[in-house]
Amino acid sequence: MATPEVELKRLGSEYAEKYGFRDPEQYVFKARKGLDREVVEQISWIKNEPDWMR
């Protein structure tokens, strides 16, 4: 019996072969790791949220 990691890799390769497509990731905003006030403010600014929601 294969390990769970090996099984997951096998499933991923079967998916690519079966469906044959993959879209590259295109981010509107990619934050750094972690969540703090600055990241929340950046997200709110991108979403054009009013100041009282920040």
UniProtKB/TrEMBL annotation:
<protein>
    <submittedName>
        <fullName>Fe-S cluster assembly protein SufB</fullName>
    </submittedName>
</protein>
